[in-house]
Amino acid sequence: MARKKKGLLLVVSGPAGVGKGTVNAALMAKHPEIRMSVSATTRAPRPGEIDGVHYFFKTKDEFDRMIEENAFLEYMHVFGMNYYGTPKAFVEAEREKGNHVILEIDVQGAMKVKAACPDAVMVFIAPPSLKILKERLVGRGTETQESIDVRTKTALDELKMLPNYDYMVVNDVVDEAVAEMESILTAELCRTGRNTEPISKLTGGETI
Ligand code: 5GP
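^ thats the input. predicted complex w/ guanosine-5'-monophosphate below
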């Protein structure tokens, strides 16, 4: 049955090196109705980063104005220097069109979104084990030993937040993780709470 209803808001978190980007990209390649939210930040672009693709790069004044205008779903002051936030307008416009929106954000930001949007679907992408996560970080070849130790410790803190999420997807084999994400989308779309319109049509005394 064709259904035209509000798209889902999917909050996807997981430790560095777990493969969130890979899983989300593979999911989006199969589902053109899924969009990725682009965050705003006050930090300077890194080489190769494009405004509007990787981030919306803002001055501190521009970011402050957006805060005043209540333009963020959530925002955060990260590392004592830069601001990062999820612009609300894009998320709402896409959901109204029936598209699903993914927010790939850290556990703190995710908890703020959960408080602001109780209908958000909270997904945590976990590694098969901490040992495997560490091996993946080492395998990237881009991290120093110190950075690997910090990230492994951070990963443990993030994993402790797992019970606050609705779903846990273990990224062992990417295709299997993507299939699980698809199952989550399907199940969420079948929730009675998201189908109040067809339910009231069925129960509203329509002529049989
Ligand atoms: P980076 O500067 O390396 O791109 O990101 C630094 C940190 O900011 C990462 O932990 C990233 O998850 C976080 N971040 C990026 N965008 C947002 C956002 O919209 N909201 C929040 N709360 N954190 C974000």
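The domain at 9-37+100-203 is CATH 3.40.50.300 (Rossmann fold).
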